[in-house]
Amino acid sequence: MSSISSTRTIRPARTLQGSLVLPGDKSISHRYAMLAGLAEGTTRLSNFSTGADPHSSLACMEALGATVVHKADKTIEITGTAGQFQQSSAPLDCGNSGSTMRMLAGLIAPHPHTFTLIGDHSLTLRPMERIRKPLSLMGAKIDLVEGHAPITIQGTPLRAIDFDTPIPSAQVKTAVLFAGLQANGTTSLTEAIRTRDHSEQALRAFGATLNRTTAASGDVTKLSIPGGQTLKAIDATIPGDISSAAFFLCAALLFPDSNLILDGVGMNPTRAALLDVITALGGKIKVLNVEEHHGELVGTVQVKVSPNGLRGMHIGGALAAQIIDELPVLAAIAPYTSDGITIRDARELRVKESDRIALVAKNLRAMGAELTEHEDGLVIPGNQKLHGAQIDSGTDHRIAMAFSIAALRATGDTEIHGAESAAISFPEFFTHLDDLCQR
C-alpha cells in the first residue's frame, strides 16, 4: 500500500445498477495461505484476495520456507514446508494485518526457532495479550511490549489445554487451533458466542480432524483438535468476500430502483448474518445457485430495496460479534433509515485498525448527523439528511469505504482523506463503485 495519503471525491448518485464479482474472501485467504505453508505438497488457490493483508500472510509463509508462485492466470501456488518451518532471516512483517499476527503466532509457536513478528504503526497499537495468554498456557514462550507488538516467540513443544475464550474472537480461536494442531494431546476450546468458522472449515479441507459439539442450549460451542496432525495440499477457489460485499449491499439500500447482483459470494452461515440484517433493514434479497466448496457455501446474491424504504433496527449481543466488520458501513447508512440503527455490545470496534466507534461518530457528525456515542456502540436516529464533508478515514480501510457509501445520498460532494487505505482489503473498491453508480 502506498505510504502517501490520497483523497478521493465521492459525488452523490441517483441509483446503483449492475453486477459484480468480488475478490476472494480475506479471512479464508489468510487461513488457506498459512495452512498451505505448513502442509505437504503444492496448494493451488484461485481468486485469492487482492487485499494487502492476506499478502502479508503469504510473505510470512515465504519467509518461513514455503515457495509462493503467482501464475499468469492469477492463481497462486504455495509449496508447503511439510510441517517444518525454517528460521526466518528477518522479522516476520505482518503489515497492517492483525489476522496475520495473531493467527501466525499460534502456527509458529511449536517450531524450534526464534521469531519476531512486527507490523505497521496501527498494528503495534492493537492488543496482543489475548493470544499470549492461551498460547502461554500451552507452554509457548511469548514476549510482548506492554501487551503489544513486536512479538518475540521462542519456539518450543506445546501441550494441549482446555480453554474458554473470554471474548468472541475468531483470531484468538484460530491461534489456539493452529497451535493445538501441532501440540501434544487434544486441545479443546469453548466459545460462549460462536464466531466465524473459516478456520474449522480450512483445517478440515487440508485434512485435519476437528470436532465440534454444541450445548443443548445452542449457545455454547466446544471445539476439539488432536495434536500431531499433518496437512495435505488442496486445490481451491476462494469465495467472494461478503465483508467487501457489505458496502455494495448497503449502497443498494439507499436507492428505490437499485438492482445489484453479486456473483460467487461466500455464504458461510457464520458470516451470512449480514444478509439477515440487510433483509431486516428493508432489502429484498434473492440467493441463487448455492454450492459447497471445501465446507464453504458459495452463491449468487441479488438485492433490491423494499418499496417501503429503509427500516431501522437494534444490533447487539451475538449478532454484533458476528457482523463486527460490517458495523461501520451499517452505521454510516443509519441516518437514512426511518427508525435509525442502534449498535451495542461492540466494544471490540475500539481496538480494530482504528477506534471505529469514535471515527464513525466523528465523520457522521461532520456530515451533519446527530447521534449518541457509547463505550460499546452508537445510537443513530433515522430520517436525517447528510451533506458532503471532509472525511477522516484514520487510514482505516473500512472507514474509508463506509463513508464513500454514506456520501452517495448526501447533498454535495464528499472528500475521503486516506482513501488509499481501501487497498488493505479491497484495492478495486473505488473502480467498482464508479462502475455501478449512475449519476
Q: What can you tell me about this protein's structure?
A:
- The structure is a single chain.
- By secondary structure, this protein is α/β, with parallel strands linked by helices.
- It has 14 helices and 24 strands.
- The protein has helices at 26-38, 52-63, 98-108, 121-124, 129-137, 170-180, 198-205, 242-253, 273-280, 317-322, 327-333, 356-366, 397-406, 429-436, and strands at 7-10, 15-21, 42-46, 67-70, 76-79, 92-93, 114-118, 141-145, 148-154, 162-164, 186-191, 211-214, 221-226, 235-237, 259-266, 283-293, 296-305, 313-315, 341-343, 372-374, 377-380, 390-392, 414-417, 437-438.
- The strands form six sheets. It has a five-stranded mixed β-sheet.
- The model has no long low-confidence stretch (mean pLDDT 95).
- It comes from Tunturiibacter psychrotolerans.
- Pathway: Metabolic intermediate biosynthesis; chorismate biosynthesis; chorismate from D-erythrose 4-phosphate and phosphoenolpyruvate: step 6/7.
- 3-phosphoshikimate binds at residues 26-27, 31, 169, 171, 325, 352.
